[in-house]
């Protein structure tokens, strides 16, 4: 991943013709170090507040984060020998030290690799090996996970431990073990950040790998910079230094949706939950620290809603909630509206940095009956994301709000390839990239005349019944609107007559009395009759992926192996 290999996608690069008038603008590379310098000086008084579970939260100003990021860079360079594009991984919760690593590692020219701490051990080991991570910075509380894994990570030379946790699990490790605070102590608080090529690798993140091996997406300084500007736009998250953002979305999940970088551009305070991600502590930190904004996947918000219903708290400060990662159920949006928390729905992927669309309703719809429907879509494409829909035969489909096809996107913060491993070339599998270089998202949906995306399914989750498509998401949303239903997941199962039919798996709320007939009748008022599931089952919880999304492949497997107690009606 040397600087030379930083590439402009061959499909899109255009050199000015010989006789062209040259621009008179300065060519200043868009670097993460510039975001850090800006945030830690101009917004030096803004804070990263990390929840500690007991006692006062830890408060660190952006100025301190800047100084400590410089100290960390010195430590990595001088003590650990990090050079060039070496990969420095993190196995950390959302906290101030993780933010320091976010800035120190790319700013010095190395590549930050955030590890998903919820992945199974064998996948983590594979990813660390594939990325050739030399250093891992880990939270002490995650050493029970890292300790047993280390013997399987021969390329890891150094482990740097931060925060509370029993270090003894690392005894006997072949990697050298360091204390984060000891490494930083006494180091200079400034660093002469190198002028890098803006196309150089800055950070990497592996897809959650629901099919096949996880794939590495490598962000450049330029892509991170441009994406951060987009996140900050009024029609995106639009936060200012008057805001505090509760960053629940993990820093290992697509750079916490770009928030750490974006907030350093604008001085937004960050409230970091560390490992306290359960609904109780989340409600407590909202009441105590009064954030104005929060970002997380729907599962987290479902949990918080149940918590607030059982034990009301003063959450009145929280007026804006960004929900993405999977579709926001309408019932959840309505319930949050009632609590005064306005949901803003967004769509994205690891491959899209992640901001791909965001559902701010157009001005003409605000205050009208159309507003809620606009907010429920996945949202509008920003200027930096071009989109098109591809039909089953690869034909372009119109933006008419009706024609459903696979979404393809391109833009300066959209992946054009996957990381091929240290010895391999970046690769572009045909099912993920079109011949002309667009990313095939695997998401199926429609786009309206005014550029609002509505996803009906993942390509692999859509139910193909007798030549017609049934949206599993529509059925789930309709089911989750029933007061007795806590969660619902619908998957395609084989059917002799129709090819595939929907199987409804339902999680009932405590004390719920609804039976399948009742739920089916409830659905019948909301979806076409031929879409109504015949197969029903109650499950204790919907299986979730490592980033909290419904894991439908597990349900399909459970059905195939006869593990589910299915009722036919
Ligand atoms: P990941 O790379 O793990 O973030 O997963 C990306 C995938 O999550 C997308 O391709 C979508 O299938 C799904 N996704 C993300 N945001 C949304 C959303 N707002 N609505 C529906 N699906 C979503």
Feature tags:
single chain, 569 residues, alpha/beta, GMP Synthetase, Chain A, domain 3, 8-stranded mixed sheet, 16 helices, 27% helix, globular, binds adenosine monophosphate
Summarize model confidence as the mean pLDDT.
93
Provide a count of the helices: 16
Approximate strand percentage: 15-25%
Sheet with most strands: strand arrangement: 2-1-11-10-12-13-14-15
Shape: globular
Largest sheet: 8 strands, mixed
| Gyration radius from CA atoms, angstroms | 24 Å
**Considering DSSP H and I runs of 4 or more, what fraction of the residues is helical?**
25-40%
Question: What features would you describe in this structure?
Answer:
By secondary structure, this protein is of the alpha/beta class. It has a domain at 462-568: ANL, C-terminal domain (GMP Synthetase, Chain A, domain 3). 27% of the residues lie in helices and 24% in strands. Strand 13, helix 12 and strand 14 form a beta-alpha-beta unit. Helix 1 crosses helix 2 (62-79), helix 1 packs across helix 9 and helix 2 (62-79) crosses helix 3 (96-107). The radius of gyration is 24 Å and the shape is globular. Residues 2-7 have low confidence and may be disordered. Bound molecules: adenosine monophosphate. Adenosine monophosphate binds at residues 207-208, 254, 324-327, 345-350, 354, 378, 441-443, 455, 458, 547.
